[in-house]
Amino acid sequence: MKYGDFQRLISEEDELVQISKAQLEQLILKNQQSEVLPTQKQSSKKIVIKQASKKQKHYQFADVHYWTITQFDWDKKVLDALKGAFGKEQFKANQKAIINCVLAGEDVFVCMPTGYGKSITFQIPAFVENGVSIIVMPLISLIFDQVQYLTSLGIPTLNMSGQNRLLTAQQILDQRIKLIYTTPEKIEMI
Question: What are the entry keywords (predicted)?
Answer without folding.
Answer: DNA-binding, Isomerase, Nucleus
